[in-house]
Amino acid sequence: MLGQLAGLRTRMASLRQGCGDLRGLVSTFTQSCQCSLNEARGQVSWALGALSAGAAGTQLPEEQQRPPTGCPGRLLELKGNIRVLCRLRPGTPSSLVSSEPGPSGTVTTCYRGRQRRFRLDWVFSPEASQEEVFRELEPAVLSCLRGYSVCIFTYGQTGTGKTYSMEGPPEDPGIAPRALQSLFQEMGTGGHHRVTLSMVEIYNEAVRDLLAPGPPERLAVRQGPAGQGGIQVAGLTYWDVPNLETLHQMLSLGRSNRATAATTKNRHSSRSHALVTLTLRTAAPPRGPGTAGTLHLVDLAGSERAWKAGAAGTSRGDRDGAQRLREARTINRSLLALGGVMAALRARRPHVPFRDSQLTRLLQPALGPGATAVLLLQISTRPEDLGETVCSLKFAERVGQVELGPARRCRAPRSGTPSSLSTDTPLTGTPCTPTPPPGSPPSPGPDSDSSSALGTQKAGGS
Questions:
Q1: Could you tell me which residues are beta bridge partners of residue 117?
Q2: 378 forms bridges with which residues in the sheet?
Q3: Cα gap 307→117, rounded to integer Å
Q4: Which helix (H) or strand (E) holds 386?
């Protein structure tokens, strides 16, 4: 009898999940159709304008040189699969790794005498620019303004260009700077938005606040209250961001506090996972509540084995080498836990092991039902990296089979207060911390001018 009751509870939970997915599907269907029609009209209008300009021997204005971007809802596929994009690091062409760039592109490898072809949602050529990569991600980024939760994370071994693609140099910015620029440009065209920022790193399974007013401290991660769900990170700071300039300053401050070290693969290798979370809350319109979308930008540490990072074979007195070895082992354990989560999600198991690592615990809201996730895989074509390249492609292939369900918009309560942001952010559960007093010491790392500028603009409302 008890066994039958337990089975009935499981079926009821499954039915509730199915009903929720169906409601999300119905609510987004009409909107998706309208977006598709609007996109088609825009494309046709642009094509006619380009033809008219060509016939008249003139050129379109600079801002109209390329077709209009697709509707943000287009990427929110009804099945909710995690989209997998692949970018090859520029270098000497190899006969062991070849690619067919474009949508539904392929990467073919020849490893240990076996040829294998991997088909991914999009494959970029080694010559692809930062702008080309972001152009494919921009619709998903802009959907945050309509209340969707979007997670973009980079994966691959050290030295393949993960941080370059996510951040990029000042003269050729990557995904994060371009996404922020695009969001603020879109927000400036109309409506009222409130932007809140948090930034953490996971270093040796310790969660550290990279935007804390003092030195980064270890934070405790707990499950949210019963019935509310979510994750609580006690003491994590959330900052109100008034403009793009302030946002870039704060991100620069966070990057300077991140743990890095030299390995055989990279002189400035990131030895931690970094998670940037942006919450975009819109004011409530006359009819109905406002929305609270979130954008998660995740730069994962390198996925290679310890000896590949130059962390193995350390002597007794080599403290730095021992530290690199510990870092590599911890990184691999957390990425293994991420693989376990993806396997459980793909198999639709009733229990998903999010608690196996701090990384997966923090990613739980970003990989939950109704979220939109995009994996940017970075691979190398060098023969000595072929083993790690194949492992990364296998992981990406499995991730592409994960279904998160139809994307759902997050509604903001009408009486939203700064503390209510905790219910919409991934690192959720605690109110925004109060603004530190003027005498609080700045975070170490950046120059004093940058720190003082930030100090006058921090506004973590309470």
A1: 108
A2: 87
A3: 27
A4: helix 386-399
Describe the chain by its helix, strand, coil percentages, rounded to 5.
Answer: 40, 20, 40
Tokens read off for 55: 């016939």
Q: Which helix (H) or strand (E) holds 185?
A: helix 175-187
Element (H, E) at 377: strand 372-379
H helices of 57-129, where? Answer: none
Instruction: Give the whole-angstrom CA distance, residue 428 versus residue 422.
Output: 5
SS3 (DSSP) at 182: helix
DSSP conformation letters of 285-303:
PSSS--BEEEEEEEEPPP-
Region of 161 please: left (phi>0), alpha (psi -120 to 50) or beta.
left
Instruction: Give the H/E segment covering residue 324.
Output: helix 319-347
Reported confidence tier of residue 397, pLDDT bands at 50, 70, 90: very high
Q: Which of 331, 351, 333 is nearest to 341 (CA)?
A: 351
Q: Which two tokens stand for residue 232?
A: 């609580």
Q: Is 66 exposed, middle or buried (0-12, 13-18, 19+ CB in 10 A)?
A: exposed
DSSP letters for 393-432? HHHHHHHTT-B--S--PPBPPTT--GGGGGGTSSS-SSPP
Q: Please give the distance of CA 422 from its chain centroid, rounded to a whole number.
A: 19
**Residue 243 confidence (pLDDT) above 50:** yes
Burial class of 114 by CB neighbour count within 10 A (0 to 12, 13 to 18, 19+): exposed
Closest CA to 250 of 41, 459, 422, 17: 459
pLDDT tens profile 91-146: 777 889 999 999 999 999 999 889 999 999 999 999 999 999 999 999 999 999 88
Of the candidates 421, 426, 429, 410, which has an alpha carbon nearest to the alpha carbon of residue 459? Answer: 421
Cβ atoms of residues 382 and 93 within 8 Å: no
Q: How far is the CA of 389 from the CAs of 86, 108, 386, 410, 434, in angstroms?
A: 11, 11, 5, 37, 45
Question: Closest Cα to residue 346, out of 82, 34, 42, 12?
Answer: 82
DSSP labels for 239-275?
EE--SHHHHHHHHHHHHHTS-EE--SS-TTEE-SEEE
Using CA atoms, how far residue 206 sits from 199, 220, 233, 274, in Å, is 14, 9, 12, 12
- d(Cα 175, Cα 47) in Å, to the nearest integer? 28
Burial class from Cβ neighbours inside 10 Å (0-12, 13-18, 19+) for residue 63 reads exposed
Buried b (16+ CB within 10 A) or exposed e, 192-201: ebbbbbbbbb
Where is average pLDDT lowest: 87-101, 130-144, 261-275, 314-328? 261-275
